[in-house]
Each structure stands twice: as structure tokens, then as C-alpha cells.
Batch of 2 targets.
Target 1
Amino acid sequence: MPPELRRSRPVSEAMLYSSGTTGRPKGIRRPLSGEPVGAPSPFLPLLQRLYGFDEQTVYLSPAPLYHAAPLGFTMRILRLGGTVVVMERFEAEEALRLIERYRVTHSQWVPTMFIRMLRLPPEVRHRYDLSSHRVAIHAAAPCPVPVKEAMIAWWGPILHEYYAGTERNGFTAINTEEWLRHKGSVGRAVFGELHIVGEDGQECPPGKPGVIYFANGPRFEYHNDPERTAASRNEKGWTTLGDIGYLDEEGYLYLTDRQADVIISGGVNIYPRETEEVLVLHPKVMDVAVFGVPNAEFGEEVKAVVQPVNPAEAGPALAQELIEYCKVHLASYKCPRSIDFATSLPRHPTGKLYKRLLRERYWTGHQSKII
């Protein structure tokens, strides 16, 4: 493009779509910046400050580039002159091999990838030289505390977590040192102001869960979907991604669950994530999804679908073992009433779980979640 056109034309803005884990993917439109073509993203300095990206960066992307985070990080590192290594699909040992082979300095993961790497035999995990690896970023889903503790014990204090969405309406971040003082947190806001709002529309005090909103963040709208756009805002103009969480006294955010995933059984709210984080730590569990299924008396009951490490063990005996395991660690009403098994769970290649696809199998024939 001739220089005079580059100077006169406003920069374009990619319209990416959400992953569709809770419904049909949504096109996310953001206003144009008005800057000329080629102007750096205002997001770039933030990533450089948080993670130290520069021309020497070698970035491993275990996730596909059609998702917002891998694409955005990859494009910004390439703009700085860094190197990007992209996996065609995630495989636990192959990821370690690539870190050693290409002397990877930075990477980005989701918790299911951590779990699968930790499931590798110790001799495999320690076979590869990971000494070049300085920054391991993770997001997309909450990470169970014991899993993150195990990763820190293995990789050292190089883990960085953030909470954000393709909507880019806000961003929180936390490094390892902070996380060890606030275990389970996804950090404090680095842009946008965090607010937790209860069912009555009022802000919640520290420690009380509610819907997570960002104020004074960048604007966005859902393409050709004014109803969903309106539903993402409250009367103050704050925006939400539909997640539930709480703040501690120091302003650190903790995720509880997706608003759409909460199980209401006998009038009691049950957060599936808490049950999932218990089950996924069982040595016979490779992956798990927990959600509500119909119950004539209580409206919903807790159901788990488990991908076992050894498919041959799937059956009533393992189901009962897992239910009893939950009862040791959780209040009884949070434990699955029943467990089904699957050879794999419907996950997006970025690691996000399409829980609605599992849930729909059990709700077929019901007009609503009110029986």
C-alpha cells in the first residue's frame, strides 16, 4: 500500500468470534481506533511489561491460531521480531520436546494441558531440558490450585495467569509470587475496573460471589445481535462475560463458575467447577465435566461425565469410587448423584469445554430447566 494511503486510512480491527462454549459463537466488534494502518496495538506495551516480549522471544503456541489469544499473542510477538512455534495439535510430551528443541522462552497454556503433562511418567517429564523457558502464561479456564502448585514445583516461579475474553473489556493478571500469596486468584485488574454484582443488582462485599463486571474498559458489541449486546451490560454501562467470581480484601479476583453453568438443586446454587476440581485430581481421571440434569423433586441434580485414564476401568465400580472420593472432599449436596463415562469430552482445541453439548443429551424432551 502506498505510504500516503497508509497515513490516510484508519487502521482496521479484526472481528473475531467467541468460541461458542455456551451457545452460538458471537462476532465481537470493537470500534476502530482511528490510527493509521500499521500503528501498533495499545495492547502491545501491556504484554511487553507483563511478560517481557521482545525480538529475542521464542513463543510456543500449543493451541490453534483461530482462537483469539493464540492469534493475538502470535501476531504481536512477530511484530516485535520474535519467533513463534505453533503446534498442529497439543500432545503433552511433544510440547516438552519442542521447548527443548527450539529453546522456547515463552509459552501459553490452558489447565487441561497442565493436567496432561503432569500425567506423564516422571522419567518422561524430566527427560527434556526446559532451562530456556522463562515465562509460562495460562488462561481460558480456572486452574485447580493443586495443579498449579504442581506446575510451579516442576517449572519454577515462571507461571503467569490472566483473565480476559475476546471482548477485551478488561484484563486481570497475576504472577507466581502474587499467586502464592493469593492461591486460586486470577489477579487484579490491569485495565478496566472490577465490580462484583449480586442478584439484587448491588455490589457484593469482598468474599461474596456475584457476576463479574468491568467498568471503564474498551467498548464492544456483538455483531448483528443487539439483545446479547444489551444483556452483557447493566444499567451503569458495566460489561460482563457471564462469569461468576468474588474479590478479596486486596482486590484480587477469584473465579467461581460460568453463570450459565450454575446448578440449582432444591433452591441451592451449586458451582460445578468446585466438583470438577476435586474429581480431576483423582489418579484415575483424565478429564471431567460436571453439570445439572433433570430431577423431578429438586429441579436439577449433579451429574459428572468422566474420561478415565484407563477406559477399561469405566463402569459402576469406578463410578462409586469417584462418588465416595467426592464425599471425602465436598459437602454431600455438591457430589455427583451419578457418573457416566466417555472416551473423550467435547473440548475446543484451546481447551475450553463444550459443556452444553453434554448437557443437551440429558435435557432432551424438557422444555426448560424448570421441571
Target 2
Amino acid sequence: MADLEIYLNFILNNPIERIVVALFIIYFFILVNKYIICRVLNLILKLVDRTDNNFDNNLIKAGIMPIKLLIIFIGIYLALEYINIGNVRNIPMPNNKFIKSAIVIVVGLFLYNLTLEDSILYCRIKKKENIDKIVFPFISIGARLIVIVICISIIAKEFGFTGFITGLGVSGIALALAAQDTFSNLFGGIIIVLDKPFAIGDWIQTETVEGTVEQITFRSTRVRAFSKAIVTVPNSKLANSNIINWTQRGMRRIHFKFVISFETDIEKIESIIKEIELMLNNNKKVEKELIIVSLSEITVYGYGIFIYFYTNIIDYKEYEKVKENINLNIIKILQSSSIKFAYPILGMDDKINKEKLQIETIKNINQEEIT
């Protein structure tokens, strides 16, 4: 620490013209960085974009900022050499420390960039089928924190800030006590990663939120609600919630009923039940394991026909199209047999609420059950 003060005093006590020239050297390398190095790197990036693999692209992208920073450090080093800072009080050339620190910063920044989204590390993890996308944010943040702590520790030790390194442990304990909620969210995120109740892109539902998972961080999980709003849920709360993962169900249920007139002959009822069953069995989008078509009830309005089956279509838009197609086919079957839907007949003295006596038609029940 004392050596650093000596170096600063020596620089400030140099003749003004030497300081101006030293600053000009640094500025010259800034211009070289901006107008030459940047263009060369952009040209190299365009060349590697033509290749089939992404390894070289990610390698160049990770190295662009460290290379620019290296050019600036070279300018600073030459400026220090020019003002001859090594002659102060016969102290060994401090540029050695500067060189070591610059190398640590450049290499640390390069390693830091390798852990970012679309980096080499991310591409390698994405290729492994047994590793979920949910894991990468935690690996990335953990790796970046390690790189930052190591770089700061090396530089601090190089310049004699030993107290700083010791203080990291003491301040770490104080920070842990002051940030209990943050650490509970962190452990909640780790539980989510290990237990894998959902992945990024899954449609989930809890007591408080429903939507598509967009991002998982150390502190929270961001869910895109169906209203298109972003809901941020603390990991500790989400890890302790009952989570329904609709994406992982593999199939969706469709069930509904309709009522036909009392005028319908029994033979026709048996015939349409068989025709509807055959139609469902011949539909490739209907699961064949469980198909129910039955005369389930006799109401005051007519005979109730109940239909229950599953479809292998998960996407909601396609799911609605499947229901529409099946409903139209059922209507065609009923029309071909001259079967009419039942409707209530009101007497003059009926005091029943008219809102409860609407004509019964095919009614799909869209509410999903927890099974």
C-alpha cells in the first residue's frame, strides 16, 4: 500500500510535459483500439460466421472485449515506461505488478465471457441431452462469481492488500446474517434445479401464479402469465408450493355431454353411440386407452350422452381445433340419424328462472382436473 502511494506521488511530481506525453500515448492506443482493432475483430467475426460450427464464433465473441482491454493496458504500460517510474527510490519496477494484474484482468474477463448465454460453455451444456436448460443459469452465475473472486484476490494480494482478503471472510459472515432471505431463495433455486419440477418453457400453475416459465435466477423465477405480464416469484416460495406442470402431462383430457330428445328411438341411440366410438377410435389425435361414450343419464329434458377421452395434442390452439373437429363430426352423426337435441318445454304456469332453461347443446368442459 505504501509503495502505491510512492508511485502516485512520483507520477504527479513528474514534469507536466512528460505527463502530457504519457496521456497522449494512452490516447493513441485508445484510437488504435477504436479504429483498427475493432475493425479487424469485426472482420474476423464475419469470417468465422461463415463456418458451420459455433465454437470459433463463441471463442471470438468471448475474446473481443479482453483483446480491446489488452490494447489499453499496453498503452498504459508504455506510458508508465516513458515517465520512468521504476527509478523512484530504487524501488523495483512496479510495471511487473501492473503486467501481472493486467494479465489477470484480461484472462478473467475472457473466462467470464465463456460462461455467458450463447457462450462455449452454454453450447456444450445444451448438446448434452441429460442436462436441462434450467441448470445453466446456476452454473453460469456460480462460475462468474468464482472468476471474479479469484481475480480480485490475486490483484489485491499483488498490491499488498492482505487485509482485504482477510476481510472477505469476516464480511462474508456478516453478509450471510444480513441476507437470510436471499440465501433462502438461493437454496430454493438449488432445490428447483435438483428436483426439476419444471423446466424453462414449461406451463406451470401454483396457488398464486399460472403461466410459462421464462427465466430462473439465483433469487427468483420469472413466469409469463397468460395476460402477457411477467410474474416474479421468489425461489423459496416457489420451492415450497404445490406446482402443477401441465407441460409434462403428455396428453389432455376432453369430456362433455349433450342431451337428445325423448322422441329418439333406442335403436338410434345405440347406433350413434357406436358411430361416435368408431369415429373417436379412428382419430389419430385421440388416445385409444380410454374412450367412453355412454347413455349416462335421463334428464327431465331428454337422454344424456356422456363422452370422455384423451388427446395427445398438448398445444392449446391445436387442442381447441381437435375439440372443434370432434364436435362437428358428432353433429354430422346426429344429423344423419335425424336426431334432435333436447330443449325444455315451458308451461304457462312455470316459474323456473329462464336463465336456467337455456337450450342444451354440446358443451365442452374446459376445466382441467388435477390427476
